[in-house]
Amino acid sequence: MSTDNPENTEHPDLQRLRRWEDSGGTWVVAARRAMSSGETVTLSLMTCDGGEEMDVFSSADPVLVEYVSRDAR
């Protein structure tokens, strides 16, 4: 588990992505959509070797959007 936020106040979507990374999984940004309220990203959660998509989810959480924007894979 990530220790970057000891109070565990991160948005559940960012927690989900960090758990995936901590487990060795990889991810890719599958889509981005600009909305009047901000940006929404869709992430594909991939196996550790990046060979198979295991799950997909979308989020409009601004912290998650910023996180994947600076660390896009």
Please outline what is shown here:
By secondary structure, the chain is α+β, with helices and mostly antiparallel strands.
Summary tags:
73 residues, alpha+beta, 3-stranded antiparallel beta sheet, 2 helices, DUF2188 domain-containing protein
User: What class, by secondary structure content?
Assistant: alpha+beta
Distance between the termini: 21 Å
Which band does the percent of strand residues land in?
35-45%
Main pleated-sheet profile: 3 strands, antiparallel
Q: Residue-averaged pLDDT, rounded?
A: 88
Q: How many beta-strand segments? A: 3
Provide a count of the helices.
2
Radius of gyration: 12 Å
Total discrete domains: 1
Low-confidence regions? none
Helical fraction equals: 25-40%
Strand order within the widest beta sheet: 1-2-3
Shape: globular
Helix and strand run: HEEEH
Protein name: DUF2188 domain-containing protein
Could you characterize the architecture of this molecule?
- 27% of the residues lie in helices and 36% in strands.
- It has 73 residues and is an alpha+beta fold.
- It has one domain (12-70).
- A three-stranded antiparallel beta sheet has the order 1-2-3, covered by helices on one side.
- A hairpin with a 6-residue loop joins strand 2 (38-46) and strand 3.
- The longest helix has 11 residues, at 12-22.
- The protein starts with 11 loop residues before the first helix and ends with a helix.
- It comes from Citricoccus zhacaiensis.
- This is DUF2188 domain-containing protein.
